[in-house]
TrEMBL record:
<feature type="coiled-coil region">
    <location>
        <begin position="189"/>
        <end position="235"/>
    </location>
</feature>
<comment type="similarity">
    <text>Belongs to the membrane fusion protein (MFP) (TC 8.A.1) family.</text>
</comment>
<dbReference type="InterPro" id="IPR006143">
    <property type="entry name" value="RND_pump_MFP"/>
</dbReference>
<dbReference type="GO" id="GO:0022857">
    <property type="term" value="F:transmembrane transporter activity"/>
</dbReference>
<dbReference type="Pfam" id="PF25967">
    <property type="entry name" value="RND-MFP_C"/>
</dbReference>
<keyword id="KW-0812">Transmembrane</keyword>
<keyword id="KW-0472">Membrane</keyword>
<dbReference type="GO" id="GO:0016020">
    <property type="term" value="C:membrane"/>
</dbReference>
<dbReference type="GO" id="GO:0030313">
    <property type="term" value="C:cell envelope"/>
</dbReference>
<feature type="transmembrane region" description="Helical">
    <location>
        <begin position="15"/>
        <end position="33"/>
    </location>
</feature>
<feature type="domain" description="Multidrug resistance protein MdtA-like C-terminal permuted SH3">
    <location>
        <begin position="345"/>
        <end position="404"/>
    </location>
</feature>
<dbReference type="InterPro" id="IPR058627">
    <property type="entry name" value="MdtA-like_C"/>
</dbReference>
<dbReference type="InterPro" id="IPR050465">
    <property type="entry name" value="UPF0194_transport"/>
</dbReference>
<protein>
    <submittedName>
        <fullName>Efflux RND transporter periplasmic adaptor subunit</fullName>
    </submittedName>
</protein>
<keyword id="KW-1133">Transmembrane helix</keyword>
<keyword id="KW-0175">Coiled coil</keyword>
């Protein structure tokens, strides 16, 4: 006879379902309370740059590109205009002071010189004629006065004689008065003649002085035109290297036009353009250095140009000692300018991350080396090699310093 067995509560199916349910609840609890909810992104570790955070000396300096220039450059400008008839020296040639470089032609200048010279000659003739006329007038005055003196003496004798005769009633009163008036007329005539001749002499002397002044100014004008004509021959004002000359035979040059330049070969300087961000920290006397022919050379800033163009300003630098042997105009070299003294600091290498984060945060690699986590940091000064870390990082940690443009806003990078 068959026996009915009691039905079991924990069947295999129930046990399996219960186990699965418990596992699901445990997984949900883990996700809710214990799992890492930060956004993640898988990245290829070979395509990023991981750098060490270290403690060291922070040297505050910048690297600028310096170009070698002559210590002194003399602009060669045309003092007068004209067209080029001869070009005696080509660019890149050494010249001596006074050496002829160009010959110009200007017909109008020559005409002006001839007109000025003609006017000066006319004034010389006028002056000579006036002086001659004055001498003639003086002789005429002497002759006239001599004649008047003779007539006065005769009139005086007649008057004195009639004066005695009138007392003896030998002559009539009318004859006496006639001789007296004749004597007085001759005396007055002489006085008038003297005054007239004095006025004429003063007037002639005034004319002579005026002519002399005009002649002097005209002669200066002639000399000026002569010097102007001499400037049609362009000469080297100093000895040096004619580094450029921008005219050819037959070309027309305007007055004041730059036609080239001469470089003084007694020394060189370096000129650099620097970002305007540093303008308040650059000053004459600031020291720097650069490498040339395997040697380091020190330089000093001697002049800062305050004008900012396209976000940059220029400085001139001279060598502390002699100019490096073999250096030439136009050569360029990176120049290191020291902006401050070296100080101990936490350092991270410069990288593309800064343009994406502004230096406010960075990805820090964890101890396992399998992921990197976003962390807020604070950066200070910068040189071409390192950032100064003010807070957020410790020496010995590793950080991602390459660009973050492909990471979006992910908080964790998984390698």
């Amino acid at each position: 006879m068959d026996v009915i067995k009691p039905k079991k509560f924990w069947t295999k199916q129930k046990i399996t379902l219960t186990g699965l349910g418990a596992a699901l609840v445990a997984f949900i609890i883990y996700l809710t309370f214990f799992s890492d909810k930060r956004s993640k992104l898988n990245v290829d570790a070979e395509k990023i740059t991981i750098s060490d955070v270290k403690e060291g000396n922070f040297d505050e300096f910048i690297i600028v590109q310096g170009a070698v220039q002559p210590l002194k450059t003399i602009r060669l400008d045309a003092i007068v205009g004209g067209y080029v008839t001869q070009k005696l020296v080509e660019g890149g040639t050494k010249v001596e002071k006074g050496q002829i470089i160009l010959r110009l032609e200007n017909q109008q200048l020559k005409l002006n010189f001839l007109q000025s010279e003609t006017e000066a000659n006319r004034l010389v003739n006028d002056l000579q004629n006036t002086r001659q006329r004055l001498r003639v007038e003086k002789f005429t005055l002497r002759k006239t006065l001599a004649e008047l003196d003779f007539q006065i003496d005769q009139a005086k004798d007649a008057y004195e004689r009639n004066k005695k005769l009138i007392k003896d009633n030998v002559i009539s009163e009318s004859d006496f008065q006639k001789s007296k008036r004749e004597y007085e007329r001759q005396v007055n005539q002489r006085n008038i003649e003297v005054e007239s001749q004095k006025y004429q002499e003063e007037n002639s002397n005034l004319q002579i002085k005026q002519l002399e002044g005009t002649l002097q100014r005209t002669q200066k004008n002639v000399d000026l035109w002569r010097e102007t004509l001499e400037n049609l021959v362009v000469k080297a004002p100093v000895s040096g290297l004619l580094s450029s000359i921008d005219v050819e035979v037959g070309s027309n040059i305007s007055q004041g036009q730059n036609i080239g330049q001469i470089d003084d070969l007694d020394g060189f300087k370096m000129r650099s353009d620097i970002d305007e961000h540093y303008i308040s920290r650059i000053f004459p006397g600031l020291k720097g250095s650069f490498e040339f022919n395997g040697k380091s050379h020190e330089i000093d800033i001697i002049k800062v140009y305050p004008e900012v163009k396209n976000g940059r300003f220029a400085v001139d630098m001279t060598f502390t000692g002699k100019s490096p042997e073999g250096i030439r105009r136009g050569q360029s070299s990176p120049v290191r300018l020291e902006l401050g003294k070296a100080e101990k600091a936490i350092l991270i290498p410069v990288g593309g991350f800064f343009s994406d984060t502004g230096g406010n945060w960075i990805y820090v690699v964890d101890a396992s080396g399998k992921k990197a986590v976003k962390r807020n940091i604070s950066l200070g000064r910068k040189n071409p090699e390192y950032f100064e870390v003010l807070s957020g990082l410790k020496s010995g940690e590793k950080v991602i310093t390459s660009g973050y443009e492909n990471f979006g806003d992910k908080e964790v990078l998984v390698f």
